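Structure first, sequence second, as always.
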């Protein structure tokens, strides 16, 4: 089923140093292995690493720069970059 989720409908998670808005995921749609959300990270922040045990994640950078660190290596983040994170990868 097709479903549009607007910002005011997104589920808000208050995480350390930021809010994460869940737009698409098992909690909001019929998606089973995918999440799409929105977050703004304050400059200089370094959120704690975590794992998604059942869902893939894609990060798309709109502005700013940083690094995504995984056991497989470090990815440079800059505007226009998309990063795919497989199920179970610590990041």
């Amino acid at each position: 089923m097709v479903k549009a989720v607007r910002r005011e409908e997104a589920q808000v998670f208050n995480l350390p140093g930021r809010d994460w808005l869940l737009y698409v995921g098992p909690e909001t749609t019929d998606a089973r292995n995918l999440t799409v959300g929105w977050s703004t990270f304050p400059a200089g922040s370094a959120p704690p690493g975590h794992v998604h045990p059942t869902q893939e994640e894609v990060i798309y950078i709109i502005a700013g720069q940083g690094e995504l660190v995984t056991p497989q290596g470090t990815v440079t983040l800059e505007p226009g970059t998309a990063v795919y994170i497989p199920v179970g990868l610590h990041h």
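Margin note: The mean pLDDT is 90.
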